[in-house]
Model the fold of this input.
Amino acid sequence: MEETVFSKTAGVLELDEETIKKAWDHLRVLNISPDDPEVVIMLNNFRTEQLYLN
Done:
């Protein structure tokens, strides 16, 4: 599997599978490349939401 900004950031942030799936679906809907630097901000927002809800 090719390493992307998305996969590297998801690993560093230790996101759970459900959060990764939601973030990936969001990425696809917005037609954002998994290597776009904006992905880091998006994943951090999903992580913040995950922490807040748990």
